[in-house]
Design brief:
UDP-N-acetylmuramoyl-L-alanine:D-glutamate ligase; alpha/beta; four-stranded mixed beta sheet; nine-stranded mixed beta sheet
Length: 292
């Protein structure tokens, strides 16, 4: 399974030190750790932080063939503060390398062979990256899964951007804080299941997922539902948990598992990430997907 994350690649500057960050990078790492051919399309600066990021990705076994190097803009960083219950608060610094992603030949070749691509709203905050990301997502094969990972951060989203992104996508992953905002944008009603079903109908989505933190997760596809209560875990921090859920969900969907099996595996993977520091801890081998 060829699976691509496209968008922001950066350092999360945590109280205990820096960690590789960016939802698409986390997604690509977890897809690879779970047995897929996971890859990342992004851009770093021609600086020490950028070189260190490329080295760290190599250590995580994530290919760097499609990581562009910007000659002028710096590598992205995010200042992260953790609340008492491990929830992250972000200050995302602007005018950095991943704001200038381009549709380079290596990226075009990668998306042309993709079984799934995951893209988000944050990396489209700049018109340069936004245009490139939309062009690359549109270039995936007709049967590829195109997952919009809604990641509302600071002021970097709008109804117009959501409409464009959902029109490109055929699947969406949201959390229980983001879904009500989307529902207000598009008049999807007041109840979670109604909102998810109407979202799928309006944008012709094959799959909609809503993660709810300690309350578990809800999946909807083609009139079918799966609700999971979540896997109990002592939370260290929640950074990357949603991205790992999305990666496992994607592989389960590509493997044509039923929704309950997908939800179970994705919840187990997310629980492992919640119980560890940072977004990219090692994953147990028993959670991997077997190639068919």
């Amino acid at each position: 399974m060829k699976v691509i994350g496209i968008g922001e690649l950066l350092w999360d500057m945590l109280p205990g030190g820096k960690q590789v960050g960016g939802a698409p990078a986390n997604f690509a790492y977890h897809a690879r750790a779970l047995g897929a051919d996971g890859q990342m399309i992004s851009r770093v600066g021609n600086d020490e932080l950028g070189r260190e990021l490329l080295s760290r990705l190599a250590d995580l076994a994530v290919p760097v063939d499609c990581i562009q190097v910007d000659p002028a803009l710096p590598t992205g960083t995010v200042t992260v503060k953790l609340s008492a219950d491990g929830q992250p608060q972000y200050i995302i610094h602007e005018n950095v390398a991943w704001d200038a992603i381009t549709a380079e030949p290596a990226a075009r070749a990668a998306v042309a062979a993709a079984d799934a691509i995951c893209f988000g709203t944050l990396a489209q905050r700049d018109a340069r990256s936004g245009a490139a990301i939309q062009a690359l997502v549109a270039s995936t094969p007709a049967n590829a899964l195109r997952i919009l990972d809604v990641n509302f951060r600071q002021r970097y989203f709008s109804q117009n951007l959501m409409e464009e992104s959902l029109a490109l996508a055929n699947a969406a992953k949201v959390n229980d804080a983001e879904l009500p905002i989307i529902a207000r944008m598009f008049g999807l009603g007041d109840e979670m299941r109604e909102q998810m079903e109407k979202l799928a109908e309006r944008f012709k989505l094959r799959l909609v997922a809503c993660t709810r933190g300690s309350k578990g997760s809800l999946l909807y596809a083609n009139g079918n539902w799966s609700e999971h209560p979540g896997v109990p875990v002592k939370v260290v921090d929640t950074i990357g948990a949603g991205d790992s859920f999305t990666a496992a969900m994607t592989l389960g969907f590509l493997s044509r598992w039923d929704l309950d099996a997908i939800n179970q595996r994705a919840s187990e993977v997310a629980a492992v990430v919640c119980a560890a520091h940072g977004a990219t801890p090692p994953l147990p081998k028993h959670l991997r997907f077997n190639r068919e």
